[in-house]
Design brief:
globular; binds thiamine diphosphate; 19 strands
C-alpha cells in the first residue's frame, strides 16, 4: 500500500482531497483490492465496480452519522478501506480478520449487517422512519444492485417508501449482472430505460447542467431546477411501446411510465457510475431533495481488471488467483468433484430419463451446479432471479401439474422461503425436491452464509422427507430416490469437495426412513460405543471409531441417512445395545438431529448416555478454513474420543470446552 491510500484512514480525509487526488486514490484502491483478493479470494468484481461510488458517498456524506445501507453488502470492501480498516484489509475473510460483509460489531460505519439480498431498502426505510420520528436530520442512503431489485422484499419496501418518508436516497447500482447475467422483466426494463433516447437526452442535459454550476450554488439551484423543469420532464417520459400487443419480455403494450416515479420516488438517471465529479454533484443534489429519490447509476462489474471484466461471473466471488492472468489456482490432481457439480450433472442424467423433472435456481446457476442443466437442457431449466420465495411457490405450482421440480438453493437462502415450504409445499404435500447446498459451514463467508439450521426448521413440518448423504455416491442415490417420491423431499449437502468415492453407474433406490449400518459391534465383550454420524460427519464418526477401537472400545458406526423420518428401529436397537451413544451433525445442536435422537430415546426408554457433537447455540464467525472452526468448537475426532472417554469417566478434563466468543 502506498501513496494517498496510506494516509486515508477515516472518511474525513476523503473530503480534503482534490479531484485528481481522489482519482488517484481510486486507482490505489483498485490495486489494493486486486492484490489482496488474489490471496484471500472474495467479491472482487462488485467492489471494483463501486470504487467511484464509494468515494463520492464518503465525499458527500458523513458516516457514522449518515447511514449507508448496502444490499447484500458484498460490495463494502472499498467502504471498509475508507473507514479505519485499511490496515487490516489484508485479513479480510480470514480467521479473526475482517468479515467480507458489513458487520455492525466491526465498525460504527457499518450501520446494518447483511449477506442476504433484498434487505437494504426495507432496513434503510426503517432508519429513515426512525429518524423522522426522532426529529433528527441524518441522511439515509441505500445502495442496491439491479439484481437485488428482482427480489420481492425490495418491492415491498418500494411500495412503502413514498408514503413513509420524504427523505430517502436510493442508489440503484446497475451493472446488468447478478452473479450470472441478470434475468427477467426487471432486467429488461432497466436495459430499456438505459437505451431510451428520451432518457439519454434528459440524462445528458442534466449532467451538463450539473457540470456548469459553481459548487456553492449547486444545492440551491438544483433544488429549484428540479422543481421547475426536471421533474416535469421526467414524469412526462414513459417507455412507450410501439405496438399495443404484449411485448416479447412479457410486459404490456400500453406504455410504461417510470416505475420508480409511479411508486412515489423521484428517478434520476441513468448516470455514469464511474464519473466521480458527476456522482459527487448528483449526491449533493440528492441531499437537498425533499422527496424520496432513486439515482440510477451504471457501473462495470470488475472495472480496472481485465480478467474480471471478461469473466464477471467468476470474479463476482472468486477464490485466490494469479494477479497477472486472473487464472485460478489449479486444484491438485485427484481432487474429488464439488458436491454442486455432482448435483448438477446428476440432475442432467435424471432429466434425460424422466420428463417430469425440471431444475429451478434463484439466481445461482454456478453456485448450485444448475449451470450443467442450463447448458445441456435449457428448456428444463428456470432461473427465477434472486427470489427464493417465488422459486418455491413456482415449484409448488408446477408440482400440482404433474411435474417434479428440483429446487436448488443454498440452505441459508432457503430460510427466506420458510413459509412457502410450509404453506405451499408441505401442507399440500407436493413432490418438490429441494437440493440444499452449503448445508454446514461456508467458512470464509461467515454467519450470513453458514447453513446450520435446516434440520431444525424442517423436522417440525409434517410430510417432510429429509436426507443427508455421507458421500457423493449416496447423494446420487438420494436424488434418484427423491424422484420416485410423492412428498416433499430435502437433501442437504455441504460446500466444497465430496469424499472422492466412485459413483455407481446405476443409482440405487433407498428405503425411506432407513439408516445404514456402516460397521456393527464385534461383540467381543468390550465397552460399546454407537456412533451415529450424519451426512458429511459420517467420515468423522468412522475415524473416531477407528481411534476408539485402537484404545479398546467396541464401536458401531451408523449412517442415519434420514433426519426425517428417523429410523426409530435402528436408533433404538443401537441405543439400547451401546454403553455410550454419540451423534455427530454439521448443524446446530439445538433442535437438530441429535435432539431428535434424544426425543426418540426418551419415548422408547433408552437410557444410554448420549454425547452430541454439533454447533453450539451461537452464531459462528467466519474463518479461513472449515477445519479451524471445527477445531475451535470441538467438531473433531479428538473431541469425540475425549467425550466418549469422559462418559466412562476416564479423562473428563480432556473434553474440549466450547469456546464462548463474546
Ligand atoms: C437471498 C439471497 N439469495 C442469493 C444470494 C446470492 N447472491 C449474492 S450477491 C448476488 C447477486 C447480486 O447482484 P446485484 O444485487 O445486482 O449486485 P452486484 O453483485 O451485481 O453488484 C446473489 C444472487 C444472496 N446473497 N441472498
Amino acid at each position: 500500500m502506498s501513496g494517498i491510500l496510506e494516509k486515508v484512514d477515516q472518511p474525513k480525509y476523503v473530503k480534503q482531497l482534490t479531484l485528481d487526488q481522489l482519482r488517484q486514490l481510486g486507482e490505489e484502491i483498485r490495486y489494493e483490492l486486486i492484490t489482496v483478493l488474489s490471496k484471500n479470494g472474495g467479491h472482487l468484481g462488485p467492489n471494483l465496480g463501486v470504487v467511484e461510488l464509494t468515494l463520492a458517498l464518503h465525499r458527500v456524506f458523513e458516516t457514522p452519522k449518515d447511514k449507508f445501507v448496502w444490499d447484500v453488502s458484498h460490495q463494502v470492501y472499498v467502504h471498509k478501506l475508507l473507514t479505519g480498516r485499511k490496515d487490516r484489509f489484508n485479513t479480510i475473510r480470514t480467521t479473526d480478520g475482517l468479515n467480507g460483509f458489513a458487520l455492525r460489531t466491526e465498525s460504527p460505519h457499518d450501520c446494518y449487517g447483511a449477506g442476504h439480498a433484498g434487505t437494504a431498502l426495507s432496513a434503510a426505510l426503517g432508519m429513515a422512519a426512525a429518524r423522522d420520528k426522532k426529529g433528527t436530520n441524518e441522511n439515509v442512503v441505500c445502495i442496491f444492485g439491479d439484481a437485488a431489485l428482482t427480489n420481492g422484499v425490495s418491492f415491498e419496501a418500494l411500495n412503502n417508501i413514498g408514503h413513509t418518508t420524504k427523505r430517502f436516497i436510493g442508489i440503484l447500482n446497475d451493472n446488468e449482472w447478478s452473479i450470472a447475467k441478470n434475468v427477467g422483466a426487471i432486467a429488461n426494463y432497466l436495459s430499456k430505460l438505459i437505451a431510451h433516447p428520451s432518457y439519454n437526452k434528459l440524462a445528458k442535459d442534466f449532467q451538463s447542467f450539473l457540470r456548469r454550476l459553481p459548487k456553492g450554488e449547486l444545492a440551491l439551484k438544483l433544488a429549484h431546477k428540479a422543481e421547475e423543469g426536471f421533474k416535469g420532464a421526467i414524469t412526462d417520459v414513459g417507455l412507450r411501446q410501439t405496438s399495443s400487443t404484449i411485448d416479447s419480455d412479457g410486459r404490456g403494450g400500453f406504455g410504461s411510465p417510470i416505475l420508480f416515479e409511479e411508486m412515489g420516488l423521484r428517478y434520476l438517471g441513468p448516470i455514469d457510475g464511474h464519473d466521480l465529479p458527476l456522482l459527487i454533484s448528483t449526491l449533493e443534489f440528492a441531499k437537498t431533495c425533499d422527496q424520496p429519490i432513486v439515482i440510477h447509476i451504471l457501473t462495470q462489474k470488475g472495472k480496472g481488471f481485465d480478467a474480471a471484466l471478461k469473466s464477471p461471473e467468476k470474479f463476482h466471488g472468486t477464490g485466490p488467483y494469479d494477479v497477472s492472468t486472473g487464472e485460478s489456482m489449479p486444484s491438485k490432481a485427484g481432487t474429488p468433484p464439488a458436491y454442486q457439480d455432482v448435483m448438477g450433472q446428476t440432475l442432467v442424467k435424471l432429466c434425460q430419463k424422466n420428463n417430469t423433472l425440471v431444475g429451478i435456481t434463484a439466481a445461482m446457476p454456478s453456485g448450485t451446479g444448475l449451470k450443467h442443466l442450463e447448458k445441456a437442457m435449457p428448456d428444463r431449466y428456470y432461473d427465477v432471479g434472486i427470489a427464493e420465495e417465488h422459486a418455491v411457490i413456482f415449484a409448488a405450482g408446477m408440482a400440482t401439474m404433474g411435474f417434479h421440480p428440483v429446487v436448488a438453493i443454498y440452505s441459508t437462502f432457503l430460510q427466506r422461503a420458510y413459509d412457502c415450504i410450509h404453506h405451499d409445499v408441505c401442507l399440500q404435500d407436493l413432490p418438490v425436491i429441494f437440493c440444499m447446498d452449503r448445508a454446514g459451514l461456508s467458512a470464509n463467508d461467515g454467519p450470513t452464509h453458514h447453513g446450520l439450521f435446516d434440520i431444525a426448521y424442517l423436522r417440525c413440518l409434517p410430510n417432510v422427507i429429509a436426507m443427508a448423504p455421507k458421500d457423493e455416491d449416496e447423494m446420487v442415490d438420494m436424488m434418484f430416490t427423491a424422484t420416485h417420491e410423492n412428498h416433499p423431499t430435502f437433501i442437504r449437502y455441504p460446500r466444497g469437495n465430496a469424499e472422492g468415492v466412485p459413483i455407481k453407474d446405476q443409482p440405487k433406490l433407498l428405503e425411506i426412513g432407513k439408516a445404514e449400518v456402516v460397521q456393527n459391534f464385534s461383540n467381543t465383550g468390550k465397552r460399546k460405543v454407537a456412533l451415529f454420524g450424519l451426512g458429511n460427519l459420517n467420515s468423522m464418526a468412522r475415524q473416531a471409531a477407528a481411534q476408539l477401537a485402537s484404545e479398546g472400545f467396541d464401536c458401531a458406526v451408523i449412517n442415519p441417512r434420514f433426519t426425517k423420518p428417523l429410523d426409530a428401529g435402528t436408533h433404538e436397537f443401537f441405543g439400547k445395545a451401546a454403553d455410550v451413544v454419540v451423534t455427530l451433525e454439521d448443524h446446530v445442536l439445538a433442535g437438530g438431529y441429535g435432539s431428535s435422537v434424544l426425543e426418540l430415546f426418551s419415548e422408547k426408554n433408552v437410557t444410554t448416555p448420549v454425547a452430541r457433537i454439533g454447533w453450539p447455540d451461537q452464531f459462528i464467525e467466519h474463518a479461513s478454513t472449515q477445519d479451524e472452526l471445527r477445531k475451535r468448537y470441538g467438531l473433531t475426532v479428538e473431541n469425540v474420543v475425549a467425550k466418549v472417554k469422559a462418559q466412562f469417566s476416564e479423562t473428563p478434563a480432556q473434553v474440549t470446552r466450547l469456546i464462548q466468543l463474546t
